[in-house]
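DM from R.C. (forwarded with permission)

"hey, sorry to bug you on a friday — could you get me a structure for this? deadline for the figure draft is monday and I only need the backbone to look sensible"
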Amino acid sequence: MNDGPINEGKTKRKDRMRFVSAEQVAQLAGVSRSAVSRTFTPGASVAPATRERVQKAAEELGYHVNDLARGVLANQSRLVGIVATRPEVGFRAHLAAALAKTLIKRGSIPILINTGQTEDELLAAQKMLIGHRAEATIILSGSPPESFVDIAHRNGQPLVVIGRTEPDADHVSAGNTEASGKAAVAFFDNGYRRLAVAASHSATSSIAERETAFRVAAEELGASVSVGRGRDSDYDSGIGAARQLFAQAEQPEAVYCANDLIAFGLMDYVRKTLGLRIPEDVAVIGFDDVPEAAWLSYRLTTFRQDPAVMAQRAVELVERRLANPDLPPAYERVIPELIIRDSFKP
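My reply, with the result:
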């Protein structure tokens, strides 16, 4: 069997994929291989004339330092893992994007791992990150099991959780309790007494915290509170929660939604299916302030979580932990701002 052309094709592809080496730069610049290495090592000693020749040769050849190899030699890479379930959905998408931008600005290499919330899925993600010597892990979804935290600590890997609770990790969270209480007071002060909260059965700890805090605050004020929950924390769940809430004999006058996606589904159901007006018949407040909240179709009054601020806090916690691994867990709390639009005007 003649496979000569096939092997020749493979050889050509390998040649095209071959990266420019430091040895090639050294030959073109007329210097030693070690001089090239020192030129691209921060703080290393190299003569100005040598540095100039090396940098000129590197630019001409298109050479870039092999950071992966350096990470292996140092037993640490610049990789930072971002672990999330459905990272493309809602606020989580904007937070993942902000984290990636902040990490790149820091000089890190973000690696997004789209995983589930089971222990096996999270541990598989962690094994990948540890195997690639990631210097830190940031979790956006799911509660990490004890073994996850234990492995991270034994490998000296900082662990930051956002919007989750884990006793031995560093935390960044939104002021869910403060915002939800403020929503209850705002409704009550505007004369609403039949209140409701729209949430989900498969709620994260943040969603559950918002539901509980709103209900407690509203009941303490003397308002009645009904609860509607969809299957998940998304648009379809908003429709499901609305069906439950507005099938009651006494329909709510105002609804607090645990996130904006739920609010969008609820608003569309209330207006398109029930023919009610927002805010004249039903007032609505959401949580997150994703870009769609400002669209003319919704004009949603909502609490703004700033993804850039939360990302910056998370990266600062990573740096804090790398600088001093023995510090106690840190808790950063970012209080959301109420953005007033048309769905509720105090």
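R.C.: lifesaver. The chain has three domains: 4-65, 79-174+308-334, 176-305.
me: no worries. The mean pLDDT is 86.
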